[in-house]
Amino acid sequence: MSSDSKLISIPSKSMIPERDIDKTPILECVNLGINFGGLKAVDNFDLSIGRTEIAGLIGPNGAGKTTVFNLLTKVYQPTTGTILLDGKDTHSMNTMQVNRAGIARTFQNIRLFNALSVEDNVKTAMNNQMKYNMWSGIFRLPRYWKEERIAHERALELLSIFNMEGMANMKAGSLPYGAQRRLEIVRALATNPSLLLLDEPAAGMNPSETAELMENIRKIRDTFQIAILLIEHDMNLVMNICEGICVLNFGRIIAKGTPEDVQKNPAVIEAYLGKKKEA
Prior knowledge:
The chain has 279 residues and is α/β, with parallel strands linked by helices. 35% of the residues lie in helices and 23% in strands.
């Protein structure tokens, strides 16, 4: 699937890739906001993401990007606005319910079970999909072993995306940094999301690891036919992989559009580089 799909305007005044125009956006945020005391951390945030779009959320440090992820995953409940996931209002959902409904995420700071094996880290994300009851688990009945075999095969299949199936029995905490980052993405995929949120996935990676990550993000989108929204400071990655980009500054959107649109936007240039002094 090409990542250079043209963006098309939709009724919510957002844009999604042309190939997704005949389907409901997987995510629609309308007038989303949150206050901490008297401070508006995010204000009037509007965004739509197509069902197979790779989108970027960028902005200077402290702009509110991770706060948006926390709103989408219900770590925080919005003060204002609406979040529609696959057309359904998530207002009454908690974090676990939103995950079951289709949003999975990774974090800036890696959150693995370091003492567990790589495979077991992936399998922990499959608990909601296991179809055996407590007694089957306690007494190791045939149903338990069948589900365990399915989970084992699924975990290895997901690890193979990053060529990590050979690491399945290693302790997660013993993996190199880049492999831990990849494992966290695999674990998120194990929940069968329709929208994957990646919070600075290239943080701490060297250029060759970042280039490999870029290809793997495309591979994930194409293989699973899902949408991906990423926060990232590596502008080379963002501009080369994202179809639509949303730019935040002080909790408000200052620009939206294609990478080309965003790169030329004076407000974006000012937010990153500061205002030019008068001669």
